Amino acid sequence: MAHRRQFDTDQCVPPRRALECRVFLMSAGDSMAKNPAATPKYIDPGCAYCPPSVQACRAGESAERGPGFCPSKIAQGEIDGAWEIYQDPKIKKIAQESARVEAEGYCQWTRVEEVVQFAKKMGYTKIGIATCISFVELANTLSQILESHGFEVASAACKHGSVAKEELGLRDDEKIRPGGHESMCNPISQAELLNSRGCEFNVVLGLCIGHDSLFFKHSDGLCSTLVAKDRVLAHNPIGALQLADSYYSKVWGPERPEKRPKLPREGRK
Q1: I want to staple 195 with a disulfide (CB 3.0 to 4.6 A). Which of 92, 165, 179, 220 is the partner?
Q2: Residue 8: pLDDT above 90?
Q3: Residues 36 and 123 placed together within one structural domain of the fold
Q4: Is the pTM of this model over 0.70?
Q5: Residues 137 and 25 in one domain
Q6: b/e per residue, 41-50, with b = 16+ CB within 10 A?
Q7: What is the domain extent for residue 220?
Q8: Residue 202 covered by a domain
Q9: Could you tell me if 154 and 126 are in contact, meaning their C-beta atoms sit under 8 angstroms apart?
Q10: How many domains does the chain have?
């Protein structure tokens, strides 16, 4: 990687402290400090606006062809900092095996197969399943598939513990079906159950938005999502993006532009 600048830990704060690193990047360099015109136009990366005809990072040409909002143009220090993290042997192995699964199963393996192959390559022996209560039958199928490949499996459904939503501070009229007992989803406890059982890799099956976030935050084991819940689109949330300009235009907010902008907000006049 000849184009990569050597990461200098004496000149940049730890890579996980993104805010401090951003301040550093905006103030770094004598010429930039003396010449306001040299200050980057963009602060935030805007990869979502990179045209398919550019996407220079695919070809290793970010420095030469990346647009002004490309991370390589505004946050090379953070990119280099992230590269340092990959030097941890455990992190490097995850990255390597992920890439191998990507290549070996490209357009051939389903995501279920990818879960199995990744876990095998990582040498995991015990897998956890964090499932929505409505997906228990599918969790049973997944558990048996994993067991058929030699893995030990522990599974935890979201409603376990039967804690009433009122205990969390919700009113009766804030429940899906007011007037009766309604158990809260309990993702933190799901994570703790799987942690205490020694699960090395946890697969998420249909947890609600936000609940999945809490599970990820509290899981000790590495996590991956097998199914992202979308009760309207048969658990295919990408459909709302594909049809955002037609059948699902209701996803737009009040500031929807009449014409799609080609640049991130920072770059618009």
Answers
A1: 220
A2: no
A3: no
A4: yes
A5: no
A6: ebeebbeebb
A7: 110-242
A8: yes
A9: yes
A10: 2
